[in-house]
Design a protein that fits this description.
With about 425 residues, the protein is α+β, with helices and mostly antiparallel strands. The protein folds into three domains: about 240 residues, 2-Layer Sandwich (BirA Bifunctional Protein, domain 2), CATH 3.30.930; about 40 residues, no CATH class; about 90 residues, Anticodon-binding domain (Rossmann fold, 3-Layer(aba) Sandwich). The chain is built from 14 helices and 18 strands. The strands form four sheets. It has an eight-stranded mixed sheet with strand order 1-5-6-13-10-9-7-8. Strand 3 and strand 4 form a beta hairpin. Helix 1 runs antiparallel to helix 5 and helix 1 crosses helix 10. The chain is elongated. About 35% of the residues are buried. Bound molecules: histidyl-adenosine monophosphate. Histidyl-adenosine monophosphate binds next to strand 6, strand 10, strand 13 and helix 10. The site of histidyl-adenosine monophosphate has 27 residues, from strand 6, strand 10, strand 13 and helix 10.
């Protein structure tokens, strides 16, 4: 029996690999236009990094973390998200705020795998620390939209937004929800019953059919906003209007993590079934090293973006060597070495006949074939065959690099530094 990948994980091959890299590179390049600094945190973190931040009622904490004890008995967790780890980094490295941090990489959640949902998945993640101004929320939403446009999927995803208000709003709203939901305790799902004591706002997120009937008449948050919360939210909505970003206010959008306040948003698509959030995030003003630290961020799921974008990688076309005779075979090794070190993609095969070499040159979609036998070695020349037109020409050995550079201009491997 062949061994398969772990449930909810995937291999990445060729075209998908390029697509994946394209998304990461594009996100990084766009992040630089907004002043983000790239950072990388370890995949392994002490469990408390997440326990202290994500909230005891979040699905991640209650059922989804990959947690184990290492050989020294320390509790370790494979990171289920970036935000808590980036907060740890900010504190640990004593970074000066304001600061904008970009990261990307794999995350792990023990969820039921389905289209757009894996147990090992990847995010592009953006966090801004030290800016309390609502313009930072607007900038981030606009950055999400910028990425959607870059990926050519802006028409597939719509912005949903809500505000959870400030601390006072959240306390008042929680109280109102508890007194409403307590009347239906016996009818609520087990998850919602638990949330009633831990974080009643999260009940609004329930997908349970019976819960949804009860939620329908639950108090709405707009009646509980403080003056400051309302003004903050208004500024954000005005900013979005100025930028021409259309949105829908979804008062049930509360997000699955407990750290949010004020702005929460998601760009949601209908094209991925039930896993529709492509980008998601919000504000999570927090205490870091005993100091109030405003923070706002979002993350996009790379696998979800991959499902949506049209992408085909342009495969580079090789120069194919066709040596004829023993001496030419030996010279091939030296020649390919020289070509590759001159950044020219070149290939040849060992031990095959002239006929099969020609066939192979077609199979690998070579741009040109370089043909040389004893005669060419003696004259210090090569015969170059253009594989598209079939025309052949003789070139002096000394001029070969320049000539090949010219011929393969539009079909080369590009190197960036
Ligand atoms: P999240 O909503 O848990 O938020 O995840 C953000 C995005 O990651 C989702 O919208 C989705 O595209 C992708 N995603 C999440 N889980 C999976 C999965 N199992 N398989 C595939 N893709 C998935 C956060 O992670 C927050 N830390 C975002 C944030 C940053 N908030 C503030 N700053």
């Amino acid at each position: 029996m062949t061994i398969q990948t772990v449930r909810g994980t995937k291999d990445l091959l060729s075209d998908d690999w390029y697509k994946f890299k394209y998304i990461q590179d594009t996100a990084h390049n766009v992040s630089r236009l907004y002043g983000f600094i790239p950072v990388e945190t370890p995949i392994l973190e002490y469990t408390e990094v997440f326990m202290k931040t994500l909230g005891e009622s979040s699905d991640i904490i209650t059922k989804e973390m990959y947690t184990f004890e290492d050989k020294s008995g320390k509790s370790i967790t494979l990171r289920p998200e970036f935000t808590a780890a980036i907060m740890r980094l900010l504190k640990h490295k004593k970074l000066q705020i304001p600061v904008r941090l970009f990261s990307s990489g794999p995350l792990f959640r023990y969820e039921r795998p389905q289209k757009g949902r894996q147990r090992q998945f990847n995010q592009i993640n953006f966090e801004v620390f030290g800016l309390a101004d609502p313009r930072s929320d607007i900038e981030l939403i606009s950055l999400s939209q910028h990425l959607l446009i870059k990926f050519g999927i802006n028409d597939n995803a719509k912005l949903e937004i809500n505000s959870l208000g400030d601390n006072e709003t959240i306390i008042r709203y929680r109280k109102a929800l508890v007194s409403y939901f307590e009347k239906y305790t016996d009818d609520l799902s087990e998850d919602s019953k638990n949330r009633l004591t831990k974080n009643p706002i999260r009940i609004l997120d329930s997908k349970d059919k019976k819960d949804q009937l009860i939620i329908h008449d639950a108090p709405k948050i707009d009646n509980y906003y403080t003056k400051e919360s309302l003004s903050f939210f208004d500024k954000i909505l005005n900013g979005l209007q100025c930028l021409g970003i259309s949105y829908t206010i979804n008062s049930k959008l509360v997000r699955g993590l407990d750290y949010y306040c004020h702005t929460v948003f998601e760009f949601v698509t209908q094209d991925l079934g039930s896993q529709g959030a492509v980008f998601a995030g919000g504000r999570y003003d927090t205490i870091i090293a005993g100091k109030y630290t405003p923070a706002v961020g979002f993350a996009g799921g790379i696998e979800r973006i991959m499902e949506l974008i049209n992408f085909s990688s342009k495969e580079p076309r090789p120069i194919y060597l066709i040596p004829i005779g023993a001496q030419a075979e030996v010279y091939s090794l030296v020649l390919t070495d020289k070509l590759r070190k001159s950044r020219l993609y070149s290939r040849y095969d060992y031990d095959s006949t002239l006929k099969s070499k020609m066939k192979k040159a077609h199979q690998v979609n070579a741009k040109v074939a370089l043909i040389f036998g004893d005669e060419e070695l003696g004259n210090k020349t090569f015969k170059i065959k253009d594989m598209d037109t079939g025309t052949e020409e003789i070139i002096m050995r000394d001029n070969i690099i320049e000539k090949l550079e010219l011929l393969t201009q539009d079909s080369r491997i590009t190197h960036s530094r």
